[in-house]
Amino acid sequence: MNDTDPIVLHLAGHGIRQGLIHQPFISFNRQELNQILSVYGQRVAEGEWRDYAIDTLKDRAVFSIFQRAAEAPLYRIEKMPKLARRQGAYSIVNTTGLIMKRGHELWRVLRIFDKTRLQLVQDSR
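The chain above was modelled as a monomer; its predicted structure follows.
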């Protein structure tokens, strides 16, 4: 099994007799996760962020960032390939659902978390 093999699930007791079902889903690749975790690690070291969750759905992949695990996510980094040709596949969404930044290249979208940029965005609210 290598990095490009599909995820295969065996569903027992769900009306499927023998066999395997291929569940299509969207996920972050290794390069994207490295970029996200680099920014995340910097903020954890500064004590701002404490937890994260990764969701792989049929239409998008979501990396949620939490200040505390019991709260709603501060930010969601979303990958939606169906928007790749339009606004861009990547977006940063805040707690209220406002899209803070959208683009075609993840590293450019993640620049919103630069200290000076984040301060300007928070001051403008």
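Strands lie at 8-9, 21-22, 51-56, 61-66, 75-79, 90-94, 99-103.
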